[in-house]
Amino acid sequence: MWNTNRIILGIMLFVLLAIPLFASSYIVYVVTLAMLFSMLTASYDFMTGFTGPLSFSHGAFYGIGAYTSALLTLKTGMSFWVAMPVSTLTVFVFAAIVGYPALKLRGHYFAVTTFFFGHFIYLVLLNSRDITKGPLGLGGIRPPESLFGINFGNMTAMYYLILFFGALMVVFLFVLVNSSIGKLLVSIRENEDLAQASGVNTAFYKVMAFSISSGFAGMAGSLFAHFFRLLHPSTFAWMTSEMIVIMFLVGGAGTLIGPIIGAGVVTFILELMRFAPEWRFIIWSILLIAILIIEPRGLAGLYNRIRGRRA
Amino acid sequence: MQNQSLLECKGLTKRFGGVHAVKEVDIKIQAGMRMGIIGPNGAGKTTLFNMFTGEIKPSAGAIYFKGHAIHGMKPHFISKMGIGRTFQIVRVFDELSVYENVLIGAVAKNFHFKPTREQHDAVRRILSLTKLDSQKDVMAKHLTVAKKKHVGLAIALVGNPQLLLLDECMAGLTFVETDEMIEFLHKINTDMGITLVVVEHVMKVVMELCENIVVIASGEKIAEGSPKDIVSNPHVVDVYLGES
User: Fold this and answer.
1) What is the pTM of this model?
2) Residues A46, A209: contact at Cβ < 8 Å?
């Protein structure tokens, strides 16, 4: 599995590197958004797919990262290259502070807590008009400062920048899940009481997974802010968290590569259905139900079934 | 003989609201011993167990392991100190292979970023000890109850516990499987020097396996002694068969 994953990731990286060379700017724009969503679903998978607790606040951490990075550059004149790691770290620490008490709850209780936390963050972003400009949206965000003579005001340059950080994140997560840390996280998912009785500090590992996962959502948020250059609270509302969960399910939980592909597939299906805006989400919902009935393990499960590895 | 016992509890008490689940229990367990804890349903055996492993905090009293106070400590910490356990309702890591199940037991005790060669060796050794080597690649959820119990034991054993707490490890086993399990427990006690504490309903098991038995009823210790003493103790007979 590990080797097939490497090959698939290699091909994906190659295709993604080549896309801007021949595709229209519209395609490049859509793929950029798909890559941002892939970052969100891959990091989400680290928490929910590998460690277990179902969370509905990933979109909120994405938003915190985006607003933190945008506000740091706007209000303090900080460079993007400093603001991005700072906002990633801020979200990491913030998630640890929120996660420590919240992760004492198990199962549905944690899920419901994250749902309300996500909504709370949305309301804060919407109503802190003095800081975030609320429903008017936060504009005037600058693209990343030029580096090595590359001007990031250019969309293709931004595309490669997001691809670079996305690839970095995926490699980092792959190394983690294939290490002993990954095994301990999976043990929490499979049986938390047994894991604890076997000597796993479950509270620590759950908070760690939550923080790393959220930190990467914050990083994706920072990249989004300086790519899109306009932030609106609704971008980080419930719909986004829900979309992340859907992409993750379509791709296949706990496989890392599944959710990455799932994000791409879902983004493209939704784009292809733009010709019928009223029907878009109705068709999509039916499709989603069908996918989950046919193969609850998502695309990764479908692939394994074709290969005859798992019934 | 060393005077200090391996596990000792003094005045151990657990109240759930106004109900005493366990009331002022004193137990001493010497290293190398095979101790049985018996009692009618709802006597507080599992509560007592869960206090030993840290899952439940005692309301009062103290627990000492190798002379260190462990009451109030987190389960993962107690586990690392050398107390292994199995669960009344069998627990395994369902979606993982038997090998990975046991490897987690090893990694959880002694963390290395990548499992070491020694850890893989230890896993293989335990798998052959628990007769699971032919099924090491099977997903744990597909195993029979008896085999799952062996996986549970293997996860605990790979961490080299000094004390193993077995909560109703015979429940749901056939006669033949029960006999095999008793033989296996004898073996790990004598060969590996692991101290055993079993909570058990099946009297046959306790009689054949244990050297010393503690009887608990309504949360209180009512008798302690060798299997022979226990069966002839009129108070124990009263509790089990009703007052005469």
Assistant:
1) 0.88
2) yes
